[in-house]
Amino acid sequence: MKSLGSISxxxxxxxxxxxxxxxxxxxxxxxxxxxxxxxxxxxxxxxxVIKPVYDDAGDFSDGLASVKQGASxxxxxxxxxxxxxxQFSEGFYFKKGLAVVxxxxxxxxxxxxxxxxxxxxxxxxxxxxxxxxxxxxxxxDPKTQKVSLINKLGKPIANGPSYDEIKSFxxxxxxxxxxxxxxYLDKTGKTVIPNTYPDASAFxxxxxxxxxGMRTAFxxxxxxxVVHPDYSNVFEFSEGRLRVAKKTKEGAMKMGFLNRAxxxxxxxxxxxxxxxNEGKSFLQKDGKYGYIDSIxxxxxxxxxxxxxxxxxxxxxxxxxxxVGYIDASGKMxxxxxxxxxxxxxxxxxxxxxxxxxxxxDKSGKVIKLDLSSARLEGIIY
Length: 381
Fold this sequence. Notes:
The chain is mostly beta strands. Among the domains are: 134-145 and 155-199, no CATH class; 204-277, no CATH class. The protein is built from two helices and 37 strands. The radius of gyration is 24 Å and the shape is flat.
């Protein structure tokens, strides 16, 4: 996909984190930097607010960031108060108020809360810790390498069978693997959709992608196929539209969209298309990029060299080799002037000119991140 946001993400190794939701925005107002071999944190203005004094650090989550002093890890809050004293062997990250930690010289793992209190110990290890987002977590037995479910007390789910693999829960179901095939189970360990697929993905918006032979189909939570494996490529639902691709008789790949019933609602006639965001999808036709609406109306004519998804009411576009931003009407609100530009998130976007990174706001004002010899280390988004 020639989405400008995607291109920027690949090229920007060190970026400033700006999440769209208020809660995440509050957690990521500070981004990690490294200077002189030590870690600290800066704010969105590029000001150092927590001096680089730590041997290593993680990113903020649930108001805390893990930091390393000497050989041990603890956690600080945004005022640089050491909330959890250094005592753990590895860095950790809070999810829904819980984190998984290890101790030097001690087998197994502890689950702690944001005060550092240990809730339970387990000799198993977590598949992909979600903070018990749906009340259970898959764990792997180090001896048998089998996966089972535990609850928030660290207790195994009653009579829950073990599996070769269990992926994280989503919408009440998790993908499991047994005897070389994938199916779905619920939080009690009961098989809801039998393991008959060579591969399967998590449910999103009531649907999941599964492999049928070499192609992809979509099923609902009853296991019924709603999108048959008729397409060369199937992506994900976005705003009720499923992006698909199929080869023509001449061998060209064309993209279009299906509805939730698997019916074609936007014909497969585009050379490229993006997912729907804020009611629009970027597309490529005859070598130029523009935008369509959800009923295939040409919302913004094809006139750009590249285009990105709408976010915060703006989308990045390339014209004459430079990146600018348009609004939903197609009006250029930030003139093309950047070498690279990412999506807007929480009112800002990362831009680059001459190898120098900055943040641009929706008025077009650019804040340069001049950190001298410091290096910005954020989560790539």
